[in-house]
Every structure is written in structure tokens, then in C-alpha cells.
Amino acid sequence: MFSVIVHYQEIALKGRNRPWFVERLVTNIRAATLGLGGIKVRALMGRIELHQVSDEDWSELHRRLSRLPGIANFSRAVRAPCDFDAITDIVLGELGGLKVSSFRVTARRADKRFPLTSPQIEKELGGRIRSARGWDVDLEQPELTVRVEILNDLAFCSLRKEPGVGGLPCGVSGRVACLLSGGIDSPVAAYRLIKRGCRVRLIHFHSYPILSHTSQDKVAEIAELLTQYQLETRLYAVAFGDIQRKVVLTVPPPLRVVIYRRLMLRIAERIARGSGSSALVTGEAVGQVASQTLDNMAVIDSVSTLPVLRPLVGMDKQEIVDEARRLGTYQVSIIPDEDCCTLFMPKHPATRARRTQVEAAESALLVEELVEEAAANAVCRDLRFPTTAIQPSTGGDVRLGATGSEGSI
Ligand code: ATP
Ligand code: MG
After folding, report:
1. 184 ligand 1 Cβ < 6 A
2. If exposure means fewest CB atoms within 10 Å of the residue's CB, which of 108, 117, 330, 407 is most exposed?
3. Do the Cβ atoms of 50 and 4 come closer than 8 Å?
């Protein structure tokens, strides 16, 4: 059995909110360790300790912690008494059969009552390791860094620091609702907000049964992947095919994409308000496709009274692809499917839609009714990590109903 020490960086800077942020991170870590035998989690003098971790749980725990926002880094560590000789023995024991050409010691002393200062610990312990193992000290680029952290009644020794994703613990920044298409971009946009501490609800518009179920299956899989980062996800599926048909019947081709987006945004806003979300999120980036121009974005946004966040707005496609690969969503996103927008997509969408023109075209539609009905018939499902796998599409789904609201995760 050993400990894992979790370090947070950014949340250490957040003044009076700090205890609340740390508490949230502790809660999230506890939730993430569910199902792993008897790990105890506690906040401890500027870091978080996971105690009683077993060797067999380590690789799964590593996988889970390396996805949890709010963690700057974490290390597998051994507890030691606050006594220099005991610390030395434990470190030498931990080094075991390890062979390296260079090393250094990095010490941090949270309790200043310890008789040696951090530089003295580094020098003394470094000297003892060098005489025991014959390794060179390299302060700049050591092959191995031995870390010692001294707290008030115990110390931790560790040999490897694992990177976390950084950001803020999920839940400290409120709720948002992300329009999730099943393409490459929107999962990355959702992740960006998850990483900033938001709980992100996902809203998918599909054209089933006009098109196959593929887009919903892809989105379910993407939602499951994103749940590994935020631990709880609410996913809404909105039937959009009939609305698109109506648009095709009345709206000239160049304006259709902007009008689809305006309708999506209105429906999403209705759902977001019913579920306590205070902003909408999309995966758009300026100029990425013909419809994603500043003019069009302005015309699209004007239907929403909630802020529309576009975390990818200034990114290149390749940067987004790289991030999607890191997240694990890329492989799902590239599975071919008939996007509800490609079905009814005009060859030449307007790049500079004018608001007056768009509003005139929309006046042929019963916008309020369509939006109301689509939001009321949205089907919502909750996912959790690590407790439950995704439910089959017939099980556990809840239709929103006329108010468009439901209980809260
Ligand atoms: P993505 O890779 O996210 O699909 P994209 O480059 O294909 O993005 P568009 O298809 O123009 O771009 O969509 C722009 C944004 O509109 C998406 O990032 C997403 O937020 C939203 N969106 C588009 N289609 C849907 C859909 N079927 N359901 C939910 N949101 C959608
Ligand atoms: Mg798309």
C-alpha cells in the first residue's frame, strides 16, 4: 500500500474561494476512485493525499487521475515519519534496483519546524544517495528526481511526477450547455469548458428516422468519453429532421445553414434555461467553413439571450484535431455518418447573411411553436463515470415535457 499526492496549482491562487475549490477537487477525486478498493482521500496542507492505494489499482487510478481537471500533477509516494534518518532509509529502500546516470533531490517543507531547511535536506539527502549508489548529481537535467515533502507530522517521498490536465475542478464554474454534433470540433469545445471547471450538458440534434441512428450512437460514445473528464454528463437528443424539412420548403438555399443554427440555438437555449445552464457552447472557429464567418455568427447569436461561447474560435483545424486525438474523441468523430446538416446542406451557404434577410425568410416558419415542441420532446439521459456504463437507448431516457426542465445532476 502506498499514497498518491495530488498537487493543484491554479486553484491555489483563488483567494477566499480556495477552501471551496479544494473541497470540490477532493469530492471529485473521491467520485473518481469509486470501485477502487478502500482509498482514503483528504486535503492536507496545500495538497491532497490518497491513502491506502494498492499496486493492483495503480494503473487504473493513474488513468483516472490523469483526466481529472484541477490536478496539476500527482505522484505515487511513500509515507515517512518526520525524521531525517528515517526519510533517508525509506528513500534508499525505494530506489531498490533502479539504475540511473544522474539524479537530484527536490525538497519542500510545509512545516518550518523541521530542523533542516529545504536546501539542507536536498544537499544532505543527495550526499547520502550519492555515496550509497554512486550516481552523479545533475541539478538541471537529472534522469531521476527524488522528491521529499515535509508536512507537520509526516513526510512523503516520491520518485516520479505524473502530469495532470490542469484547469479547475469540475463544478466550480457553473453549468453550460454545448451543442454537440458528433464531428471533431464540438467535443473539443465541450472539453475546454469542462477543463475550466464547468459542468457541461450536451445537446445533440439528429434527423432520425430520416437518417440512420449513427449520429446518436457517435454522440453517445463521445458523451461517454467526456464523462471520464467531468464524471457526470446529461445528454439531450433533439429530433431536428422535421424542422429541417420545413426550412427546406420555405427558405432559399444560401440562408438555410444560418437558419438551422438559429433554430438550434433557440432550442438549446430553452433546454439550457430549464436545466440551470448559464451559457451555450459551440465548436465553431472563424473561417473554418463557409458558414462560420463573423457576420454569420452575429446573426446566429442574435436569437440567444444567453452568451454563446466558442472556445475554439481562434484555433486552426490541425490544432483542434491534435486535441481531439489527445482526448480520445477523434476516432469516434471521424466515423462516417450523415450529419443532419449535410443532408439538407446547400452547395453555397451565405457567408454574409444579413439579419433582415434572415428574419424575413424565417417569418414563413412558426418558429416559436417549432422551438417549443422540439425542446419539450428532447430526450435526456444521464451518464456517470466510473459507476455506470451508458444505458441502452431505450432504457433510462427521460422526455423533457412542456416545461423543458428536469431534476438536476
Ligand atoms: P463539428 O466538428 O463540431 O461538427 P463543424 O466544423 O462540422 O463542427 P458545423 O457543422 O458548421 O461545424 O457546426 C458548427 C457547430 O454547430 C458545431 O461545432 C456544433 O457546436 C453545432 N452543431 C452543428 N451540428 C450540430 C448537431 N447536429 N447537433 C448539435 N450541435 C450541432
Ligand atoms: Mg459538424
Report:
1. yes
2. 407
3. yes
Place of cell 451518464: 383
Q: How far apart are CA 286 and CA 290, in angstroms?
A: 9
- Whether omega before 386 lies within 30 degrees of 0, making that bond cis, reads yes
- pLDDT tens digits, 288-308: 887 889 999 999 999 999 999
Is the C-beta atom of 205 inside 6 A of ligand 1? yes
Q: Using an 8 Å Cβ cutoff, are 232 and 350 in contact?
A: no
Residue range 244-273, pLDDT digits in tens: 999 999 999 999 999 999 999 999 999 999
Q: How far is CA 223 from CA 35, 381, 389, in A?
A: 21, 10, 11
Q: How far is CA 294 from CA 150, 285, 287, 300, 305, in A?
A: 54, 10, 8, 10, 18
Ligand nearest to the CA of 218: 1
| Residue 280 beta carbon below 6 angstroms from any ligand 1 atom | no
Does ligand 1 come within 6 angstroms of the Cβ of 183?
A: yes
Report which ligand 1 atom has the smallest distance to the Cα of 203: 29
Q: Whose CA is nearest to atom 8 of ligand 1?
A: 185
- pTM for this entry: 0.92
Is 187 near ligand 1, meaning CB less than 6 Å away? no
Distance of CA 283 to CAs 178, 320, 323, Å?
8, 10, 13
